[in-house]
Amino acid sequence: MFYIFGFVVIVIVLISYKINQKEKVEIDKIFKDIVTERGGDIKRVFGYYSQLIVPYRDTDIMLSAMTSGSTGNGGRPPQTFAQFHTSHSSDNIFFQISSLSTESIIQKALGFKDINIDDTLFDKQFFIQGKDEKFIKRLLTKDIKKSIMSLNSEHGMKVSFAIVKFFDGSEWVEKPRLDITLYKLSTTSQDYSDLLEIAILFYDEIEKL
To answer: Is residue 30 part of a domain?
Structure first.
């Protein structure tokens, strides 16, 4: 029985590896196409999907993906995301915009504040949290709201702006970072192109405020 179980585990691992390799090849092809069109560098990370680094103005926008897994806070769903760092440092401007879900409905019922931005369609689809309501309303321009809604799907998504700690190659530093996360592992070029475009929209708007 032990040998049968071991054989089944090996087969499952090999199948998962083959699927992951297929996804890696597809994502790498998408990234190569983006580099050809817009420039940038592809960074290959052992055991993970590649990262695409696209320089934009004073920052680098990173595109990548992750499979589902475990974290210190529980299970992590599959993700496809864009992120960039910015020089803004005020604690009051950080926020999170999440697709309306069972969790956010419970949070609202428990009294968690949901910021209303006076856009009926957007307010129905998203749960918004943050300290500076005026900043969030000014940041969410018509184009940004349209882009967020077009990326939203049955899998859900999140936009967050917060201080994160990371290693910059020589030391640990803390900087504000904006993340746009789709809760799915995408091998569709349109998703990565859309993520890049909305990251650019957010960066430009943040720099104005």
So the answer is: no
**Cβ–Cβ < 8 Å for 186, 42:** no
Residue 179 near residue 160, CB atoms below 8 Å: yes
Q: In one letter, which amino acid is 185?
A: L
Dig out the tokens for 5 from the structure.
């179980």
21 part of a folded domain: no
- 133 class by beta-carbon count within 10 Å (0-12 exposed, 13-18 middle, 19+ buried): middle
Kindly give the confidence (pLDDT) of every residue in the chain, 209 residues in length, as a single tens digit, with 9 standing for 90 and above.
545 544 443 433 333 444 467 888 899 999 999 999 999 999 987 667 899 999 999 999 999 998 875 444 556 788 999 999 998 766 677 899 999 875 666 666 555 678 999 999 999 999 999 988 999 999 999 999 999 999 998 889 999 999 888 877 788 888 899 999 999 999 999 999 999 999 999 999 998 88
State pTM to two decimals: 0.83
Q: Is residue 111 situated within a structural domain?
A: yes
Please choose, from the candidates 85, 105, 98, 63, the residue with its C-alpha nearest in 3D space to the C-alpha of residue 162: 85
Residue 89 covered by a domain: yes
- Six token digits for residue 50: 């590649």
Number of domains in the chain: 1
Domain, as residue range, for 85: 55-208
